[in-house]
Amino acid sequence: MMSPPIPFYILCGSLGAGKTTLLMRLLEYWKAQGQRAGVLMNEAGSVSIDGPRAGTLAEQVMNLAGGCVCCDTKEDLSWGIAQLVRDVESDVLILECSGLADPAEVIDAVTDAFTTRLAVLARVIALLHPVSTEESHSSAYVTAQAIRCADELILNKRDLYVPGHWEQFRAGIIQQNPYARLWETSQARLDVAALLAPHSSSKPPAPTNVLFGKSQPALAHHTGYHPIATTVPLPGPLNRQRFLAWIKTIPKELERAKGYFRFAQEPELQEFQYALPAQATISPLMLLDEPEPTLVFIGRGYDVERLRDTLLATVENHRVDP
């Protein structure tokens, strides 16, 4: 019998923000807790520079060097996860992304139906610091994506900036992502236990240094924590007409949806793919190792429960209220 999937953390953010420093703090914590941490390190160069440092604390470090994990090494990422779970028997996994990797693409890769049998996305942690306005277009884009995708936003190197500049930087971050918890640090020092603890809808007590961004008025009914990836198991085959009608109700805030299922009274396994701008495909395929019928939603700012409930209403034997 297959063991349940283990937690998988993504550590992303600006170039030079201190991601490796934070990684070492996380590894120290897990080691003290008796957990076997597996590390995947993605560096843009052909040789890993930071991997040997992490290897002093991690159970195993796998280097995904020579390319960006969001595009060039996606297959290596899935392979690395499998190796760390099956061969090394890691209890927890963490990927340190290159400062050039788009975390949205990484999330898409690790929520693959086969990869999620081994590891489940637990948290996206973005480490940021005020950067020069001369930042390249590609770096600025990746930083914006890290802010948008994060569950935890850690603003680092506060000690190096004057108060006025820092406050402006912080306000801009909150505006871009009102769902994540916001941490303000120097040298990536924070309470790791609080960082990894389940989210609460209220501010945790001192001495943690967490600050919650305020939800936008239209989203006030939600809690402060919004996972970016939601997995919806499907308990049976879908009604084709109801599912096609459901696709038309997908909110614009949902950026990505994917999965596998069957339609009632049709033998073929179907693969579903949806991506903005509102493009959906349903394709029959054959797989030797079929995943469980599941759809994965990726996005923020929409009613997750409503979308899940309306999807489940397309299951053939699901009771639909008149």
Keywords for this entry:
322 residues, alpha/beta, Rossmann fold, 2 domains, eight-stranded mixed sheet, 9 helices
Q: How much strand content do the residues show?
A: 15-25%
Q: Which spans have pLDDT < 50 for at least 5 consecutive residues?
A: 44-53, 66-72, 201-226
CATH-derived architecture of the largest domain? 3-Layer(aba) Sandwich
* Strand line-up in the sheet with most strands: 3-2-4-1-5-6-7-8
CATH class of the largest domain: Alpha Beta
Helical segment tally?
9
Taken in chain order, the helices and strands follow as EHEHEHEHEHEHEHEEHEEEEH
**How many strand elements?**
13
Which term fits the overall shape? globular
**Rounded Rg:** 20 Å
Largest sheet: 8 strands, mixed
